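Dear U.,

For the methods section draft, I wanted the exact inputs and outputs in one place so we can describe them consistently. I've listed the two proteins in the order they'll appear in the manuscript figures. Please don't edit the token lines directly; just add comments below if something needs changing.

First protein:
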Amino acid sequence: MPIMPTTFVQWYYNNASTILASLNPSLSQASVNETCSTHFECVHDYLLRINSFTSKATASALDMFQQSRLILGSIEILK
């Protein structure tokens, strides 16, 4: 049975970040949080790939999507 993404990220933050960081310093909570801030999708991507470039791209795309929703929402209100 596959692990759900939210369960995986919760497992990391609640139980595994110290262990994983001892195996690879790039998996420390500080590194993950610096790369991803509060973006769940970015954290999930980073933990799977350990690639800050692709994870930052995920975070950037999420920010742009959220900004687009806000802009479109404000245009809809103005009509």
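Second protein (the one for the lower panel):
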Amino acid sequence: MPAVASVEAYLEGRNPDAVELFRQFAAVVERCGPSEPAPRTSIVYWKRQRVFVGAFVQGRRLELNIDLLREAKHPCLLAVFPHTKKVFTHRLRISDASQIDGQIEALVQEAYDDVGPGTRSA
């Protein structure tokens, strides 16, 4: 996936409702601590030493990838699949701002803490 110049460039021309959901999710990621957005043409990842979450606009919805060292449950969960021997990618669909709740915040913080620093010593 080719990189794009910025998160704003990624969001340009996308559905305004989904862009608002994206911005709310980005604020959740930013509250976790320092990380770096890595925008691509089809998704924006956030990383520390390693990518720990991603988000992309799908029509009026927001789709999330949250990487964890375990399989987790959530009402918005579409799928869980192994990404590496240790990391499971959780795919979630967000269609309403109320779904970006404490559970999502906890999962993102867990991803930031456990996967973001890298998993070689985990």
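Candidate sentences for the figure legend, describing the second protein: The beta strands are 36-39, 44-47, 51-58, 61-68, 77-82, 88-94. The CA atoms of residues 14 and 112 lie 27 Å apart.

Thanks,
Y.
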